[in-house]
What we know:
Structural class: alpha/beta
Strand content: 25-35%
Number of helices: 4
Shape: elongated
Amino acid sequence: MTVAAIDSTACVASAAKIGRDVAIGPYCVVGPHVSLGDGCRLVAHVHLTGHTSIGPRTVIHPFASLGSPPQSVKYRGGPTRLVIGADCDIRENVTMSTGTEDDRGVTEVGDRCFFMVGSHVAHDCKVGDEVTFANNVVLAGHVSVGDHVVFGGQAAVRQYVRIGEGAMIVGLSGVRADLIPFGCAHGPLANLVGLNVVGLRRRGVARAEIRRLRQAYQVLFFGAGAFRERVEAVASEFSDHPIVARVVDFIRAGGARPLTMTAARHGAGETVDADAMS
């Protein structure tokens, strides 16, 4: 078994759990309730505290601070957690908080995620696998992000918002309502501006499937009648299409926030509660 390589200037609590082949660079701080998976690398000046678990082979760059108490006035000092998956790349000045007692008590990040400089994951968020945060992207508390989502630089997401899998948020956008899977959002008060076709192609989705998804999108957001009626029409017409089914399931599930709609159908910057549309 290969032991960890710990720089002499690092401060590592004796109770911390350190996996095999871990490298901890100069001036890093690792708290007593931190767990580092095999092959993790802390480059330098990394601060890990709280009840924090880091998956294997994740690399954390200078001045990242992970596992600090949540920035919430409701936090009561409980042993809430931060869990980060395997093979993540966490760049300089990234911050992530533990959860709060009033939610699930844990902030979760999946595998193979890329967090660029200055991005932030707030308390009680759940981030899926292979998600990319460009520089200075910020999530408020209780946000849910599906797999394969891409955030452009300086995008921000309001608390309790759901971002569906495969979505794209353009840089400088402010997302204040749920965004459908494979959707693309843009604007300071973000609107739905189309589908993330580039992302679908990169994941190897066939052209025929993308074409069917586009057809369903047109019916959902530009068809006649009440929105709930269009949802059911799409569910029936495209019942054999698994990608469309994931969009429909996301809409039906609902959440604490309304649904981001298109500016062309509704006023610029407007969001519409699917249950209230008529």
